[in-house]
Specification:
476 residues, alpha+beta, six-stranded mixed beta sheet, two-stranded antiparallel ribbon, 54% helix
C-alpha cells in the first residue's frame, strides 16, 4: 500500500451528497465509499502485510523486546491491538502489555527521527487508535488508559507537525476525534443532517469501516435521540434502530437506549412501537415470561410502558384463536385488556389434542414462552389463559359456559413445575377466599360470566389486588 494519505476530495465529494439522502443511509454510504476508495488507493500510512506476517512480527517483538527494523516497528504500532498465541498458550497483545506499549509510545514520540518517519509512525498509531476499542473500556482499565495515551501522542504530533503536513493538519481540523468521547461531537450533527464533518473526517483520516468510531457514533446518536423534538424523534428513531441492530456488539445497549427514549415521550404509541417490541422480543424474550432479561437493559419505567402492549397482543392472539375455533365472545378479551398495565405474567395451557399447525400465532407464542409458561392439559378441546395481577393468577377457560378461576401464584407455579400434562381439575379447584367476603355472598375463587359479570369481576379484583382497570374506551 502507499504511504501518502488519501486524496480528501475524492471521497468527501461523494460522501457530502449522502447527507441529502435519508438519515441512516448516510453512514452506510460513507463506509461503503471509504471501502471502495481504500481498495483502490490503500489506507493512509498502513503497511500492506498478511495476517501471518503480523503474527510473526508480534511474536518476535514479544520474544526480543524490540522491533527488528523500522518496517517491523510500523507493523507493531499499526497492529498493536491484535492478539497472538504465545508459546505459553496465552493470548498476548502489545496494547495490553504495559512494558511493550510504553516502548512503542516512546518510539512514536521520539525526536530522533526525521519528520517523514515520524509521520509514518503517527499514521500507524492513528490506525491503531481507530481500531482498538479502548473507548468502551472501563474507566481505570489498561485498555482505556492506553487508548487515551495514543490520543495524547497523536495530539502531540499534530501540534508539532509542519503547517504543510496533511496528517497533522487533518488531526487539528478533526481534533474532536481524539477527545474522551470522540463520537459525541458528531452525533447530533449527523442525526439532524445539518453537517458534513463526519464525511470529511472519514475521508481525510481514512477511518476504517470496522473502527469502533462507527459503533460509538451510533451509541452517541441513541443518547442524542431522547433530546430531539417530537417530530424529529419520530422521523429518525426507526432508521437508527435498523443501523444499531446491524452491530451485534452494541445491539442490546442501543435498542435499550431507543426504547427508553421512546417510552419517555409524552404519548408513546403501541402501533409505532411494534418494531421495538419485535426486536426486543427476539433478543430478550417475552417480558411476561422473563422480565429480568428486559430489566438487564431497560429501566423499570420503560418495561412498564411496553409490557402492557405485549400482554394485549397475547390476549388478542389467544382469544382470536378461540373465536376462530369455536366462536367465543370477545367480551372477555376486551375486559382483560383493560387490566393490561397490571398484568405482569402470562401462562397458557392448550388442549391435549392441540396441534401447533392449527395456528401460526400460537405456535410463535409457544416458541417464545417455552415449557415454563406454555403447557398442555390432560383433556382435549379445552384451553386456559392465565394472567398474573398482583399476587394472584386469573384463569380464563375456553369452553363456553366455563367460569373464571383464580389461584395464588405459588399454587400455579407448583402446578407448572409438575412434569407431564396438567389436569384441568387442578385449575377448576375451588377454595374459599376470606378476602372476598365483603363483595361476594359465597366468597370463592370461581366466578361466572353471568349478569353484570364485568362489574362483579372489577370489585372482586380490586378487593384482592387493589388494582383498577382502565376506563372503557381508554387507550394506552
Amino acid at each position: 500500500m502507499i504511504d501518502s494519505p488519501l486524496e480528501p476530495n475524492l471521497l468527501a465529494s461523494r460522501m457530502k451528497a449522502a447527507f441529502e439522502r435519508e438519515l441512516m443511509g448516510t453512514q452506510r454510504f460513507m463506509t461503503e465509499e471509504l471501502q471502495r476508495v481504500t481498495r483502490r488507493f490503500g489506507a493512509a500510512g498502513q503497511v500492506e502485510v498478511s495476517d501471518e506476517k503480523i503474527d510473526d512480527v508480534l511474536l518476535r517483538l514479544r520474544a526480543q523486546g524490540i522491533p527488528k527494523n523500522f518496517r517491523d516497528l510500523r507493523i507493531c504500532i499499526q497492529a498493536m491491538g491484535e492478539y497472538v498465541d504465545a508459546d505459553d498458550g496465552e493470548a498476548w497483545s502489545p496494547f495490553t502489555d504495559i512494558a511493550t506499549f510504553d516502548l512503542l509510545i516512546t518510539e512514536i514520540e521520539s525526536d530522533e527521527r526525521g519528520h517523514t518517519r515520524k509521520r509514518l509512525l503517527a499514521q500507524a498509531a492513528l490506525f491503531a487508535y481507530l481500531k482498538v476499542p479502548g473507548v468502551f473500556g472501563n474507566e481505570d482499565s489498561t485498555e482505556r488508559m492506553h487508548w487515551r495515551r495514543l490520543a495524547e501522542s497523536l495530539r502531540n504530533f499534530a501540534e508539532r507537525a509542519p503547517e504543510d503536513d496533511r496528517l497533522g493538519g487533518a488531526l487539528k481540523r478533526h481534533k474532536a476525534l481524539l477527545d474522551e468521547r470522540p463520537a459525541q461531537h458528531f452525533a447530533e450533527k449527523l442525526l439532524t443532517r445539518n453537517d458534513d464533518s463526519v464525511a470529511l473526517m472519514a475521508s481525510e483520516l481514512s477511518i476504517p469501516e470496522d473502527s469502533w468510531f462507527w459503533v460509538a457514533l451510533i451509541l452517541e446518536q441513541v443518547e442524542t435521540l431522547g433530546r430531539l423534538p417530537e417530530d424529529e424523534f419520530q422521523e429518525r428513531w426507526s432508521h437508527l434502530l435498523t443501523r444499531a441492530l446491524e452491530h451485534e456488539s452494541i445491539a442490546d445497549r442501543a435498542l435499550a437506549g431507543i426504547m427508553d427514549a421512546f417510552a419517555s415521550r409524552s404519548k408513546p404509541s403501541r402501533s409505532e412501537a411494534q418494531p421495538l417490541i419485535d426486536a426486543a422480543g427476539e433478543r430478550w424474550d417475552n417480558p411476561l415470561v422473563r422480565p429480568d432479561s428486559w430489566l438487564a437493559w431497560v429501566t423499570p419505567a420503560t418495561l412498564n410502558v411496553f409490557r402492557p402492549w405485549i400482554s394485549e397482543r397475547m390476549i388478542d392472539t389467544f382469544f382470536r384463536f378461540l373465536a376462530e375455533d369455536r366462536g367465543v365472545s370477545q367480551e372477555r378479551p376486551l375486559f382483560w385488556k383493560r387490566y393490561s398495565e397490571h398484568i405482569t405474567e402470562i401462562r397458557i395451557l392448550v388442549a391435549n389434542d392441540f396441534s401447533p399447525l392449527l395456528n401460526e400465532e400460537l405456535r410463535t407464542l409457544r416458541s417464545q414462552m417455552g415449557g415454563s409458561h406454555f403447557r398442555k392439559l390432560e383433556v382435549d378441546g379445552t384451553h386456559v389463559f392465565i394472567m398474573k395481577i398482583g399476587s394472584y393468577q386469573f384463569c380464563e377457560i375456553s369452553k363456553h359456559g366455563n367460569a373464571a378461576y383464580f389461584h395464588d401464584t405459588e399454587f400455579v407455579e407448583q402446578l407448572f413445575e409438575t412434569p407431564g400434562s396438567i389436569p384441568l381439575g387442578k385449575i377448576k379447584q375451588e377454595v374459599v377466599v376470606p378476602k372476598l367476603r365483603n363483595v361476594m355472598s359465597n366468597p370463592k375463587n370461581r366466578w361466572t360470566h353471568q349478569g353484570s359479570w364485568q362489574k362483579n369481576f372489577i370489585s372482586r379484583i380490586s378487593a384482592l389486588t387493589n388494582k383498577r382497570p382502565r376506563k372503557v374506551g381508554g387507550h394506552r
